[in-house]
Amino acid sequence: PRSRLSANRTTPPPPPTEFKVLWRMWCANDFTHATCKAPVFVVQGLVPATLYEITVQAANDAGWSDKSAPLVVKTAGLEMPIIEHAETTPTAPKAPVITFVSEKSITVRISMGILLPESNGAALDAICVLVQKTGSIDLCDTSDLVALMQVNPHDTAWTVVWEGHPSTLRPLEHHDPSVREFVASTLAPGTVYFYRVKARNALGWSDLGDVSDGITTNGTFLALHWSFQWNRLADAPKLVHKTGTSLRLVWPKPYSTHDIDMYELQCKVAATTDWSVVSSRIRGQSHTVSQLSPATGYVFRVRPHFANMRQGQCSSSSWEAESNCVESHIYHTHGATPDPPSDVVLVSRSQSMLEVRWKMPRCNGHVVLHYELQKQRMDEVKSTKSILSDAAPDPAAPWESVSNTIEVDCATYRVQGLMHGTPYRFRLRARNALGWSVDGDPSVAFFTHAFLPPTPPLATAKTHYSLDIAWRDQQADVNNNVDLKEYFELHMCRLWTYCPHDAIPDIRLDTWDVVQDRWYAFRVRSWIRHRGWTEFSDPSRPIQTLRRM
């Protein structure tokens, strides 16, 4: 069977309304472009005798097309006209080359054919060598050494050390006869010098030429030794930024004849002697020391590590001796909010009150103004492994603020209005001029008493050798109807003398057999199932045994 092909009839695309011409040098990365309305464009500002790559994009109502195939074309060269120059002063010379350095002299090389300036039509009459001394390297730190290598741009800072005809300069043996040398003598040891040259013809002097590299004359061994030591000792870390818990330090690269590949940063608290290593793998010349204490002074020092140190050049390792590492100034961290109070302990308790005490926190540079005490109710947990109940946090119980205006000089604080026989835990935070601290760690569980202690004991019967003692539950006890008391503990104290106005001494755990005609006092407490001992009752009134007839 014959197959039939059919094509949908489409409308032609709209004609281009704008063109974008892009061009770049053959080896360049980025294109330069311009837009135009006509399909003809002249690219201006090209470099003569240079290859260019040119592409075009077209745009209509639907957008921009892809780039066209590149056109590679080379611009034409220029024919330079021959211009006859008039005679002028010489061109400024190029920089001389340093070839030799000793303790008191420097040799510079001047090439008559290359480095010497063009005479510009008139023969050279003279050459002038000028020098600038920037200073001595003795007793300079690294920053000063950097300053020594910077030339003063003013012409008045240069001094003429020699002036004469070029032919009087010393030629070099076995070299191009156009090369000459000049030796500057009677120089200071360990000093940085720069050189430059200017030339003169019949029309006058040229401008000052280019400046040579800076060079230091050799110093005596002792002077250089102390110079190098001082350079290293003066490279102490400098502070550039600080917060309450961090310090950012920078330091210059110490002057050394060996390559330095890393640094070790050490720190200590001011007025102490124990150094600790912050990091011994610092590749750069800056480091941020974190986890510091607020409002605290610290001292730092940097110890460089020398790379490619050959055997015998260092005593035991490639690290600089710590005695050569100078200590920085004392840098203080900023003040911060105080640390939270800690170590919350129980002082006393009742059925509806818990008295707690805590440890004073670190103020971090600003005095503590007051504290906030928070409480949280916990769940009682009875365990088969222990005769006493335990407590676990209640996830539904919120932290409640007891008071946020507790004075700093308060030694303890009583939390009133608590539920009897209920465990609670506490946490605190402190405030100074910068604000509140974070919440402290929660304390362990503290139980209010589930039961009140018994009433003070009373004597129900007595003889010359015995006393019958009785007590009962307090009527105010909210749990006096719950039978959880398992047994009691009775304490007795013998009163050697007694007067109704005397205070009863502390009850001791000692007991005696009662004897005739003596005074005694008693106290008692209850053992509650799962809760332990109650508080002791108040001491009884003094009780006297009978006298034997």
TrEMBL record:
CDD domains attached to this UniProt entry: FN3
Keyword ATP-binding among UniProt keywords: no
Gene3D superfamilies, per the entry: Immunoglobulins (2.60.40.10)
Classification via InterPro entries: FN3_dom, FN3_sf, Ig-like_fold, Striated_Muscle_Regulatory
Domain Fibronectin type-III: 1-78, 233-328, 340-455
Organism domain of life: Eukaryota
Protein keywords: Repeat
PROSITE patterns registered for this protein in UniProt: FN3
PANTHER family: FIBRONECTIN TYPE-III DOMAIN-CONTAINING PROTEIN (PTHR13817:SF73), TITIN (PTHR13817)
Designated name of the protein: Fibronectin type-III domain-containing protein
Source species: Aphanomyces astaci
Lineage: Eukaryota, Sar, Stramenopiles, Oomycota, Saprolegniomycetes
